[in-house]
């Protein structure tokens, strides 16, 4: 139940981010819906395709599509008020990537993948909805270019999970700890403006 | 046989639309062929991937690839005459989306998906070849931004199908009726310039 | 063993080409890694998805991801020296497409596909990593627009393979011959500036 609520909140946060990008691009109603849907479930869909888990998740669980439909209607009707939700959306999104990373990792473990592959799957689940959103909107994916700690938080959380799992603790502790680590890193990085190292030398500091 | 002819006409119409977009972008011969192919079979390919129906359809039925090869040669040779075909192309395309929507819906029913998922699959089959075409050509997909009744006609036809199926009629009637509804909505929408509701308020009417 | 070395060299060459494009776009460290990875394994991943060979290859063989990680670090550290490697990179890339084409063709044969589908799979394996790279970097794929003999060399090599196989020779000869034909066509086309036929008439020669 707790899991379910978080999952819905994650889809809502991702879908709203999709609506915002789509409306910036002046897409029509159908386009806004598709972008919202893809942002919400695209990462999990890509994960399911890569591991052959088909029909993909959203085809088997209708609450995803209903959640996106309601979210899009809500977001369009209250589009002028969405800016007041910015902090809540950041929180949902951050909780969402924490949870989605672990969902992806678990799916990888279930089919016997190596830890590094599980972490890749988790990061794809959390981050690639946004990548597909940006490609469909004809932009370079924002997580590839902002030097933000976003996917990096997912990777760090995934690594932590496999380290904590080695301790003599119940697996559930490692699971929850990893989610909290992802959320914590993401929040601290935004608060203290911690970024990825600059790989372009001083000339790009202009 | 009838089905087969319509399927070929649909692939031809989609492939020619791919050639036209690719030539606008001044792609080379290989690029034009890939765009034509992707426009013709991309929707069905995405559908097959999402439901795990692999190898995807065009790998199992060679007539798709041959149809596209012949269409591309024809379209390049007669490129100056293609504009005279505009009405025929619109008709083929419209018949194509009607048929493809129902093909996708049927595939969804065969694997026991819910009606809303079947309608999604049908719409993906009919419309996402064009989406992939536009992404490969570095454009925002045209069906996301024109406020046109295109995907909407597929969705409406799919909903009609599941409603008509409840009547005490042979299933074939519902199938054909849904195709005609899609074609009818599309033609009427173009004829009477019916569009999706504007979600941007008056400032976007400039 | 020989096969393995070539495969690694191919991944390295493709990954470096990804790093170069990603750094041109000023992507951050994460973006550079993803583009390098996608360029290196994207073609094989798309092939595996289309034929339903999941989890896709790189999830089952960790050396791909490790090779890309090492290559990206190397390429970033020595970014100013990469231009001196241009000839080696061209050779690795050319050997890579030769080998990848045949890997794709073999996978198609293993599941009983027709020759034309095997050749398509081979060409996808060799060329579509670069296509996905360009899409993620918001460019029209370079192999669609340069009139270069690149994918065409893969197709020609694939056709040769199926012709040579008909001779009363061990299959290994046909395999190696096809790889050499692809490499040979590619090198000759670059050396003598042989291009695809112009399909736009004289007005595009401006």
UniProtKB/TrEMBL annotation, chains A, B, C:
Transmembrane segments: 6-22, 29-46, 58-77, 111-136, 148-166, 172-189
Cell cycle in keyword set: no
Membrane topology, from the record: Multi-pass membrane protein
Keyword Cell division: no
Compartment(s): Cell membrane
Domain Glycine transporter, chain residue ranges per copy: 5-79, 91-165
Keywords: Cell membrane, Membrane, Transmembrane, Transmembrane helix
Gene Ontology cellular-component terms listed: plasma membrane
InterPro entries per record: Gly_transporter
Family statement drawn from the similarity comment of this UniProt entry: Belongs to the UPF0126 family.
PANTHER family the UniProt entry points to: INNER MEMBRANE PROTEIN (PTHR30506), UPF0126 INNER MEMBRANE PROTEIN YADS-RELATED (PTHR30506:SF3)
The name this protein goes by in its record: Trimeric intracellular cation channel family protein
The organism of origin for this protein: Arenibacter aquaticus
Upper classification of the organism: Bacteria, Pseudomonadati, Bacteroidota, Flavobacteriia, Flavobacteriales
